[in-house]
Here is the input.
Amino acid sequence: MSETMSEIHDPDAPQSTSDMAMTGRMDVSAVLEGAEIPEVVSNIVFDLANVRVFYGDFEAVRDVTMQIGRNEITAFIGPSGCGKSTLLRSFNRMNDLIPGARVEGLLAYHGFNIYAPDVDPIEVRRRIGMVFQKPNVFPKSIYENVAYGPKVNGMKVNMDDLVEECLTRAALWDEVKDDLKKSAYALSGGQQQRLVIARCIAVKPEVILMDEPCASLDPIATAKIEDLMKELAKDYTIVIVTHNMQQAARVSERTAFFTADVDAQGVRHGRLVEYGPTRRIFTAPHDPRTEDYISGRFG
Here is the structure.
C-alpha cells in the first residue's frame, strides 16, 4: 500500500417481484421513504468525472460524471447491458482482474484517484467491500467465514467478539449462534447472503458495494436484506445495482438511471442518463428516457 493511499481516511467512518410489468408510471408512493434530500451531494465519498470503462477496444461505459455521498444508499438502475455492474466493479477495482479491462477519466475516493499508479488495489478492496448477486460463501464454517478476512489482514482483535459483532450487525447472530462450527453451505440462500455481508464488514470497510444482492432470494429473504441495508447505511456508504425498481425506491436516497446507446456500427455502450434524489427520479424525472424506463415503455 502506498503511503499516500494509507493516509486516506474518513474521520467519521465506523471504527470497530421481479420487475413488475407496467403500463403506466410505476406507483412508488407506497414504498418511497424518508424526507426530500437536496440535488447536490454533500460529504462526497466518490467523485467521478468522465469515467469510461473498456474491455479491450470495447467501450462498455461512457463518460460517467457523478458524486456519491457518505452514509447514503445509491441505487443504479437500468436495462440489462447498460454498464451498471461494470461501473460498480470499477469502484473497488474488481475489473482489474479481467484481462484487457481499463478505466479512463477520474474516479476519486475521498479526493484521491484510486487508479493512480501507486495505489494498492488490495487496500482499495479492503476499504471498499463487495457483495455479489449469488452468495459466495467459503467452504468453511460460519465462524471461519467471518474470521477469514481479519486473519488474512493481520487484524489484532478479539476474534470471538468480532465474529459476534459482525453476525449481529448482519442480523444473523440469533439464527446461528449455536451453530458457528457448521458449514456455511448449511445455511439458506438468504442466510448465506447475510453471512457474506458479515464477512464484508469484518475487515472494517467504509463502503459496501452490492451487485444485485437480492436477485436470487425469495421475498422474505429480500426484505431482511433491505432492512439490513438501511441499518448499515447509518455507518457505511452503500452503492447497489438492482433490476427491481421498487427495491431502488424502497432503500435508496439517490438513484442513477443508465441506458445503452447504440453507435453507428451497432455497438452498445452504457451511459448515465440521469442521477438525483430517488423521490424525484421516480416522480418527476428530468429526462424523457428516464420517464420511459420508469413507466415501462422500454427495458
Remarks:
- Confidence is low (pLDDT under 50) at residues 11-24.
- The radius of gyration is 19 Å.
- The CA atoms of residues 45 and 110 lie 5 Å apart.
